[in-house]
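Handoff note, outgoing to incoming analyst
You'll be picking up this chain. Sequence as last confirmed:
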Amino acid sequence: MADPKGFLTTPRQDWPRRPVEERARDWAEVHVPGALLPIISKQADRCMDCGIPFCHDACPLGNLIPEWNDLVSREDWRAAADRLHATNNFPEFTGRLCPAPCEAGCVLAINQPAVTIKNVECAIADRAWEEGFAPPRPPERLSGKTVAVIGSGPTGLAAAQQLTQAGHTVAVYERDDRLGGLMRYGIPSFKMEKRHLERRLEQMRAEGTKFRTSTAVGRDIGADELRTRHDAVVLATGATAWRELPVPGRELTGIHQAMEYLPLANRVREGDLETSPLSAAGQHVVIVGGGDTGADCLGTAVREGAASVTQLDIYALPDAERDEDTEPWPTYPMRIYRLSAAHEEARDLRTAPVADADARLFAASTLRFDGDAQGRVRSLHLVEVDTRRHPMEGTGRTLPADLVLLALGFSGPDREDGLVDQLGLEMEPRGTIARDSGFATNVPGVFAAGDAARGQSLIVWAIAEGRAVAAAVDRYLTGSARLPAPIGPYDRPMAV
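Most recent structure output, in case you need it:
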């Protein structure tokens, strides 16, 4: 500890965001550029000598948080970068996109605001790139073994980097025209600019990882042919099979899945399109679903110039503080009121005058959609529900809706490419790929990791899965355990 009394004398200070009126007019990241480094050393000083750092258990990567907090407080950025990269391949991603379960597990959070762990992590990652502390690390020699990784999201990229650095020849197959999975076409640039992704991909190319874009395994290349080419295969395709909303009027034009809407907006930013064919400009937009994907749609619609945007959350308005009876420390409180950058923008710009808070209507369930004579959606009918999701009499209302976005989550891997059926994979009842305690599927030499096998989860769990499956594949190829495995396939977040 650089300052034993830091947590007593220094209040929490988060990375400040740019003014709403400014950032809602562009697509740059929401935080004030350069405003993190001047405050971060004092924030790292708030890390306590707590004896048992529960932040380690709250983070599936096992990040060495107290160690790099101490190093940052002493401004030893090189050593901090080394400790951070020892457990996390992509801290510049998690430092921007992870909801920080580590902070929920911070001992200081028992009765004070937690250490700004996520901000410290992001500061280390960015400083590492600026100072050249994250060079490519190609292997000293090759093993002669080849591995195919299917999917270039955080799980696939983490697995590929670990296996490449271990000396195996790795080819990553991505069905989209660009790499990154949801980080490329799902996450808006105001949350993470794509330059961070491009920089890491260049590092991986320099290390020796091969990338094959616009290649859908199962369609463009058969699963059996891929198995013949490679000694092992890692399935990291993600959970892209979206959940539906089977209510009357769903067939109307103007009702789309979130992952039909967000990729088009991202393609505009990539320069592929001048405008999105699903642009929210001038439209009354209703987003069904209260999670992060819905918030991404919200921030995107605001920037596109929507006439109004309302987000529906089927859960009741949560409290400002955690409920210690149902979600005690150090578990991650799911039901707590959080104000994301997108919700802050919607609140200040008053995009939804009828909302309960910011742009959200809570305890709201969709009953039906109504359309015009041309079959286009024009309104959404909803009702308030109780804690058991039962409709409450006399609470119905109607919202204008020209564009409806369904952000209801994902159930498992998309099976349209035929990969699952060609391999003959066993599936879990919930729609994910079945695997054993060593991440292996029922097909010899084929492993599964990430959301495709775990189910929809957080980016930090995706990276942990990638590192763990890489260790399993390396053991399969070499007969020895050389790579770290932070989690097992059946591990789950801390819960009561």
